[in-house]
TrEMBL record:
This is Transcriptional regulator, AsnC family. It comes from Caballeronia sordidicola (Burkholderia sordidicola). GO terms for biological process: regulation of DNA-templated transcription; response to amino acid. InterPro entries: ArsR-like_HTH, AsnC-type_HTH_dom, Dimeric_a/b-barrel, Tscrpt_reg_AsnC-like, Tscrpt_reg_AsnC/Lrp_C, WH-like_DNA-bd_sf, WH_DNA-bd_sf. Residues 3-64 form the HTH asnC-type domain. SUPFAM superfamilies: Dimeric alpha+beta barrel, Winged helix' DNA-binding domain. The keyword Oxidoreductase does not apply. GO terms for molecular function: sequence-specific DNA binding. Keywords: DNA-binding, Transcription, Transcription regulation.
Length: 153
């Protein structure tokens, strides 16, 4: 389905404020409430909107360290990769994981309280995951841009 200008405006508004009421959303996009609600239901049903969630403050939660971790495997075995991927799903500190091309097999985004906490996590959790032969960490010094939603090209 092609998105029209109003559909795009609804998606942009919801990415900025997922708790917007139907009334405020309708006002922002220039529709009355009933057609806006119908469009929103259609966007949800068609899979453009996967869900709604709160954006939590890392600093308020005491998670002051963000690390990007390149993980390499020495043996490329499908069962091993599947096991690795299953295990990382259960680790809350790993907030994102991508199977990537290049010198690494996976790129992880990890949060921790501080450097000591991250070091313990690296030693006791990351390095012992199935298939892992090498890890390389890059610590975030400062977040320049935070995920603000997907672009509607």
């Amino acid at each position: 389905m092609d998105l029209d200008k109003i559909d795009r405006a609804i998606l942009i508004a919801l990415q900025a404020d997922g708790r917007a009421t139907n009334a405020s959303l309708a006002e922002r996009v220039g529709l009355s409430e009933t057609p806006c609600a119908r469009r929103l239901k259609r966007l949800e049903a068609d899979g453009y909107i996967e869900g709604y969630r709160a954006v939590l403050s890392r600093s308020a939660l005491g998670l002051g360290l963000v690390a990007f971790v390149q993980v390499r495997f020495s043996v490329h075995d499908r069962k091993l990769s599947d096991r690795f991927e299953r295990e990382i799903q259960a680790i809350p500190r790993i907030v994102a994981c991508h199977n990537v091309s290049g010198t690494a097999d996976y790129l992880l985004q990890v949060v921790a309280r501080d450097l000591d906490d991250y070091g313990t996590f690296m030693r006791d959790v990351l390095r012992v995951l199935p298939g892992v032969s090498a890890v390389e960490s890059m610590l975030s010094l400062r977040e320049v841009k935070r995920y603000a939603g997907l672009p509607l090209l």
